[in-house]
Amino acid sequence: MTKIAVLAQRVQEKFQPDLLACTTAHGEITLVVARASLLSVCQTLRDNAEFAFEELIDLCGVDYSAYGVAEWETESATGTGFSRGAELAADGAHSASTWTGARFAVVYHLLSIKNNQRLRVKCFCENEPPVLDSVTGLWASANWYEREAFDLFGIIFEGHPDLRRLLTDYGFIGHPFRKDFPLSGYVEMRYDAKKGRVVYEPVSIEPRVLVPRVIRDDHRYVETPPPPPRVERAK
To answer: Cα separation of 53 and 33, whole Å?
Structure first.
């Protein structure tokens, strides 16, 4: 049994009542837990010696509202040329999203230096506005990560010591990583020499598709087998 399989078996045995799902793909394990169990599961993953995930190396928000929907083919794309453009329906709209779960989720990437292993934990936000408990009391690195997710997605982390915007301007309105937020934004800013200050004006750039969103599951994500053992020739 591989190390990944052993870890997957152990976390399922340990957290079975609290797990909504446990999947293994491309050499990575993803646990899906409910909000009520998030803090207890994370604390056990950190403090239990058989897991010892002492480091939170990343935390990010996810917006599933347009999952699989774009002006580009996302599941049947060839990855080359201009054939990735999606065809509009008769009413001028693209196909509806295939996602039926909660719109927002937060993903935690954990690292155990002691055991040399990684784990991904995902928790969905069922309410609007999206709310989860802060894990800053478990991993100090979550402070800025949660502020970033709050700024870009509007996800609120209860218990965070200083939850405020991190990347956008103080007067910024909206959350730019939400899928319903226009790529060009709502306003633009410039320095007005006559007024001697920065002014905000309605955006003058036409929205356009720049980068296709493609859901990929091809050969690039398949683990390559190890090379055959080297055989020494007799001299």
So the answer is: 16
